[in-house]
Structures are given as C-alpha cells and as structure tokens.
Amino acid sequence: MTKKEFQDGLRQLLRSEPFFPFAVELRDGRKIIIRKPPLAFNDEGASFIDSTDGALVEFERNQVKKFTLLTPETVA
Q1: How confident is the model over 15-44, as pLDDT tens digits?
Q2: Is 74 helix (H, G, I), strand (E, B) or coil?
Q3: In 3-state terms, what secondary structure has residue 65?
Q4: Is the domain covering 3-75 a CATH 3.40.50.720 domain?
C-alpha cells in the first residue's frame, strides 16, 4: 500500500459521519478492528488504544493489505 493510499484510506474512514468501525486487513491474514477513533498515524504506521481491552495496537503501512468497512453483523 502506498503512503497516499494509507493516509487517504485512514482519513476517509476516520472522518466519516457517522463513524462506523472498520478492519485493517494485514498481509499475513490478521485483521485489526478499529471500533472508534482516535487513531494516530503518519506516513509509515498507525496506533490506537483498543477499546475492548485497553491495549496499545500498532501496525505499519507496509503490513496493510486493505481497509474494509464493517457491517453491523461483522462488528458484534
């Protein structure tokens, strides 16, 4: 994923009104669920505090395969 795709994709998802959770799909098959903002990011990566357990979650741009908007059924 290019820097522009990474930044533009995250900005679009984080600024959507109303906000809705999304998944960050990584190249190794893992999925990271972003349930609510805030999320800090720059050219090379992003981090946030997981609302379910308070853990710091970090991922790098070069690990990201794609972003996927989640449906109510997939968030549960």
Answers
A1: 998 899 999 999 999 999 999 889 999 989
A2: helix
A3: strand
A4: no
What size, in residues, is the chain? 76
- pTM check: above 0.90: no
Q: Rounded CA gap, 64 and 16, in Å?
A: 20
Instruction: Pull the structure tokens for residue 40.
Output: 């800090």
pLDDT recorded at residue 40: 94
Q: Which two tokens stand for residue 16?
A: 């959507």
Other beta carbons within 10 Å of 24: 24
Q: In the chain, what are the domain boundaries? A: 3-75
pLDDT in tens, 48-58: 999 889 999 99
Sign of CA dihedral 75, 32, 3, 46: positive
What is the rounded distance in angstroms from the CA atom of residue 59 to the CA atom of residue 44? 9
